[in-house]
């Protein structure tokens, strides 16, 4: 389905912050691609939004975190929902370290939208068609601010 052609690895280093209540770590956002695979050390800080509440993702030694991205949400016509998440500033003396691998489709001109196999009269498309390049252009032209981008393509 050409959804995992582009892989990007990003390492994040969050040093000790003496005033974490005055500092943002990484603001609220959802990942734009298909899937994100994350490995983190034992220092907490990752949170996911469930309803209107932020919940801590407690680090577990040897575990990986898998995030569903916006493109998978759109292709599944909301069957799978991308996760809104953020990282708090680090109040621990030890640094927080994480490595994420983002699995994305290619930026070529292929059109994305809900998969036709998932649509019916009872389950119409929730999103319009678009290219991933167009989606990424919008993603990088805005501040990270939750999940507003998926709403832009909603019908």
TrEMBL record:
Membrane-spanning ranges: none
Keywords per UniProt: Iron, Metal-binding
Boundaries of every Fe2OG dioxygenase domain copy: 1-105
Taxonomic superkingdom: Eukaryota
Annotated protein name in UniProt: 1-aminocyclopropane-1-carboxylate oxidase homolog 4-like
Source species of the chain: Olea europaea subsp. europaea
Gene Ontology molecular function: metal ion binding
Pfam families recorded: 2OG-FeII_Oxy
UniProt signal peptide: none
């Amino acid at each position: 389905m050409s959804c995992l052609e582009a892989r990007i690895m990003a390492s994040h280093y969050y040093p000790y912050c003496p005033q974490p209540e005055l500092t943002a770590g990484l603001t609220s956002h959802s990942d734009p691609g298909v899937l994100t695979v994350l490995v983190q050390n034992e220092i907490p800080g990752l949170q996911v939004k469930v309803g209107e509440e932020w919940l801590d993702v407690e680090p577990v030694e040897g575990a990986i975190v898998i995030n569903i991205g916006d493109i998978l949400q759109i292709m599944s016509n909301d069957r799978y929902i991308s996760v809104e998440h953020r990282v708090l500033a680090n109040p621990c003396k030890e640094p927080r370290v994480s490595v994420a691998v983002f699995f994305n489709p290619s930026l070529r001109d292929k059109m994305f939208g809900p998969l036709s196999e998932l649509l019916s009269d009872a389950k119409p498309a929730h999103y319009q068609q678009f290219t991933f390049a167009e989606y990424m252009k919008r993603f990088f032209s805005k501040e990270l601010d939750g999940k507003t981008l998926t709403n832009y393509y909603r019908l």
